[in-house]
Amino acid sequence: MAALDPIQEKVVYSVTHTYIKVKNGSNKEEYIYGTLLMLEKPDGCHIEWREDPTHVDAVNDSWDFINADAVSFTYSNSAAELTDITPTAARTEGSCRMINQQKFHNPINFHVDNLRSFKRMKGKLVKNSCIMFILDCGTSHPPIYFPKGGVTDKFLHHLGKKVIITQSATDGNRFLVSPHQQEALESSFDALNLFADQGSALSRFAADPVRGTFTAFAKVSKLLTNTLVASEDKNSVPPEICDQLRISVEENETDFSAIHSTQPEDPDFLFIDEKAQLPEVEKKPRGEPLKRAVWEKFFDAEGRVTNPEELKQIIYRGGVSHDLRSEVWKFLLSFYSWDSTTREREEFRKTKVGDNNERLHQLNDILMTFVMYDFNLGYVQGMSDLLSPLLLVMENEVDTFWCFVGFMNLLHSNFEMDQEGMKLQLNQLNQIVQVADGQLYSYLDDHESSNMYFAFRWLLIVFKREFFMDDIMSLWEVFWTGLPCKNYQLVIATALLCQCKGDIIENQFGFNEILKYINDRSGDIVLSELLIQSEALAEQLITCTNLPSYVRKIISPGSQSSATQPSPDRKPARPTSSPRKRTAES
Amino acid sequence: MSSRRKVLLKVIILGDSGNQYKATIGADFLTKEVMVDDRLVTMQIWDTAGQERFQSLGVAFYRGADCCVLVFDVTMPNTFKTLDSWRDEFLIQASPRDPENFPFVVIGNKIDLDNRATVAKNALAQESEADNYNEFPTAITLNKQENTNSKGGCSC
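Output (structure tokens, whole complex):
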């Protein structure tokens, strides 16, 4: 075992009052405070983050109550001054803990040789500076936030004595790490001059944002050109064949078999990449959530929703404010039809309540009921993920059940025995990624990942495990509107993958590491940003004039799709067909 | 600084889990570093979705596995009985180069639930004699921890 005598570890540098964000029992964000340590052990240098037992119960913004003066930085250069860390109860199992069964975070404790890269965000962009470590196995630890006014520079300066740090050419916040071959070479780090006041790319950017940005863009385009040229060489298809294929694609779009037979394993996506040029679009900021005053204006005298399409547009752009969710979700999930009257809905609910009230109590009961309701499907792992937010929003179990039925109608094929729905979606994701980002696609394909298996969890339960509760509610509302295109979840997945592109490629991750990295994004994705990017990407795809027809089919209404919209015409006035019969229809 | 020669060991964990609501979806793994003699071994311990319908996807994740851990729940004898099919399924899906000698480890979990475990322990003793587990290079370990499986219990 690697267990070492604690006396043998020496603290090289430490930062106290750092914190990480986790989910608490109600899926809300919570901070855990601790100390970031650089330790010298017999086998080399380790980085470790230890939870501070005195801050265990600190929640939410309690940071603001902590006096910034209390923040202490301790480090020492000479061996004589090295401090011993007293082992405490809190560190026996490291800083690994399960918070009310919600979010497990791995202990942050690794040898610097295992560090592949790190990302650093400085103030301004985020509330406090933070640093995020990415290991060679694909594990990405949660960002460690530094105390208010705390700077990451000194810590990184010490790290630079242990490993070689190189700033990414494409992302100024990313730093790639490689181990020193011999002794620590201070000069290499100083030569890089990352953190000095002058000369670093970041400070240049701060001094002259415009020039800085264009310089960075120039690097990106150079990189892209190199990669494209390289991948073209690799593919080594004679230009005349390219032309022929292109013509055959243009003339007869159904004639794909010819292309596939030319390159059976890898259908020459390169040509199609070149063919489909996604247009530039402007990114639109997210809208306001639907408020009660606006919601109420949509009803006529009898309580019918007068313009559901306009309403969906509002929800698509900004979601629903929380106090309205229990009402609005019933429409979105087809429990109520949009053109029902208030009176019809009341009658309708009574029939439902009358049928089922005794059997519906808790999450477990609802799932048991669903198993009986949809007997052929049964209980499948992941269903409870879909149910829990509904239960949280609805006032009672009956409404929850029928909304769950609506949600399951959308995702039914994801859960079926043959898994055809999931296979289809992974395949469709593959096709969208090819069009959206050829460079990323080539990378995934070269690293056994164009099967998109890493996206399985995303798609099976529509990103449920990737977000905190508030965010997943907003994301699902957007998804339920059916806007702006079919299979929007695949567009969101593509946009999310594009966000991860830099980390995946620059860390040179393979199949295992990509999966791990993608899983570790959970709780660390900014929803509004993702939705803005997804909306822009959807618009690019929709307006692209030469989008391959098989991609257009994925996103166009009326196409074969795994997540089909429920029929909007299901009227509450005639709902009492037996559950089994409805299942047979679906 | 001593040189760190690293060896990667890919371990797959299989077995029936109880009805847990937070089941693994898709696949995930944890890594743990262990010193074996003078070699530093990084264990990559994989958990995949347990339900049968998700198994076809498991294939991709089994590839390159060095060891397979079969876990059962000592309070539920059925979870022991299904280990055979888990093993067969693994050998079919992962198709290791030398299936005769592929290392399996069997772990009985939750032995701390003593009162309920007794029956299962007897069953285990009988079954492991009657069964042909001895033909495989298999170790049987009993694990005390309940509901967690990331630490301890692994002795290959």
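The radius of gyration of chain B is 16 Å.
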